[in-house]
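Let us work through a complete example step by step.
Step 1: write down the sequence.
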Amino acid sequence: MSEDETGASSGPAPPAAFERAGPVLARFARPRCPVPARLAVLGDPHLSTRRVGTWKLFHRTERRLAAAVEDCNRRDVDAAVFVGDLTENGHPADFRRVHELLDRLAAPALAVPGNHDVPAAADSHETPPVGAFERRFTPGGLPFHATVGGVDVVGLNTASTPDGRLYHTHDGEVSPAALDWLSDALADAETVLVVGHHNLSTAGDPDVPVGDWRSSFPLRDADDLLATLREGDAPLYCSGHLHVPAVGRPDGAVRELVVPPLCSFPQGYALVRVGPAGTTVRHVPVADEAGVTEAYLAALRDKSKSEAVARSTAERLRRLPLADERAPTVGAEPTASTR
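Step 2: predict the structure and record it as tokens.
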């Protein structure tokens, strides 16, 4: 099956059924919600209207985001939640194109900024301020608390702080004021899903060797954020940034889901269903087989980092689900053992 000019598949649209979304990335015991809610959690579109090539396949980024929007509409999601890096480097033209594509969404669009969405010293253009991002993508500013069905979606800004210390780096931080706000928000939430761009668990992950590329973009105050999530009984934190779908457990209480990237291999997003039995996460592809192959080969050829990303991703996709906390029921599909 080939792609049309919008980046969507040229074949007939599949039924709008969650169960046909794609392979299960993870099943979590929590969060749980009496009335099921369906969220698309999307990461790292890196949309560029000017650049081409690299392992991020910039010349495909508009198509991939357009395909994701179309798929979200087909599946009738309750909200589309973006975990950052909507643009490649915050160029106004790229933000305008992102806005045009997201205006096609039937569901509300929420987003937190990534390090590529905020002003940087190396920018040769005038990147819109974080306040402009907040006005377009949040219900009242950052951090935000939005109710989606019965789910409390809490969004954190890990990509910039009031003094601008993170504008020149790839690492992240949550400001002390935002941590205080989060503590209060979690006290008032019942079924909570917390999202941010930067990752909690990679530096301390026993599966990540010292010096591995995945430990090079840390959340500086990961321990403080983790403590706040744990104390507020927030069971799941969703992030992007690494371009590798992954599940981590930084401690015994909090799970982290790193969602697939839209721009690079495997070019997809996470469809998250929160229901009475817990949370199921599925990988939804936004490229056909030829597009996925193109992305994989581009990553192998571009640089050592992108090759490591692609090989790690391919290995993880061969052993899905990455976590399974829910016991199988009679008539249910077979599941892998808990990892």
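Step 3: interpret the result. The helical segments are 61-75, 92-102, 130-137, 176-188, 222-231, 289-302, 304-317.
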